[in-house]
Amino acid sequence: MTDLAAVLRAHGRRLTPQRRRIVEALTHLGHATPDGVAAQVAADGGPSVPLSTIYRGLEALESLGVVSHTHLDHRAPTYHLTGHADHVHLVCRGCGTIDEVPASAATEFVARISASRGFTADVTHLAVHGWCARCRP
């Protein structure tokens, strides 16, 4: 958390108790919606934190590059800490299971788009929808 405090200070922000608890919740959960973060924060035994504060905290942490989000379905975005390797989310349309593969798995896809369209893709926010081995039609 000391590195996090330094990052926040460098941008004129503080590591408030609420932001610390949000980061701790994401550390515990891995990936979570704002509601999931709020539930984890509520379960930690500390003072209550309004959902609006959770949303603002996540937005502030994302603007500083501490967290990232992706849309895995039509519901709320899913957040995770940025300290681990970039990955692509694989979302099963049958059972809702979410798996991950390294972002490097999309290298050929990114290269083709770049070559054909001149577009530089950011696969750190990529979710691929389909069917897992159990649900495959």
Describe this structure in words.
The chain is an alpha+beta fold and 137 residues long. The chain folds into two domains: 2-69, Winged helix-like DNA-binding domain superfamily/Winged helix DNA-binding domain (Arc Repressor Mutant, subunit A, Orthogonal Bundle), CATH 1.10.10.10; 87-130, Ferric-uptake regulator, C-terminal dimerisarion domain (Dna Ligase, domain 1). The chain contains five helices and five strands, in the order H-H-H-H-E-E-E-E-H-E. The protein has a three-stranded mixed sheet, with no helix packed on it. Strand 1 (67-70) and strand 2 (78-81) form a beta hairpin. The termini are far apart. The mean pLDDT is 90.
Outline:
The chain is α+β, with helices and mostly antiparallel strands. It has 5 helices and 5 strands. The strands form 2 sheets. It has a 3-stranded mixed β-sheet, with no helix packed on it.
**N-to-C SSE series?**
HHHHEEEEHE
Count of discrete structural domains: 2
How many beta-strand segments?
A: 5
Give the DSSP E fraction (strand runs of 2 or more residues): 15-25%
Radius of gyration: 17 Å
Q: CATH superfamily membership of the largest domain, which one?
A: Winged helix-like DNA-binding domain superfamily/Winged helix DNA-binding domain
Q: Provide the low-confidence segments as ranges.
A: none
Average pLDDT score: 90
Helix content: 40-55%
Gross CATH architecture of the largest domain: Orthogonal Bundle
Largest sheet: 3 strands, mixed
Please state the overall shape, judged from the principal axes of the Cα atoms. globular
The separation of the N and C termini measures 45 Å
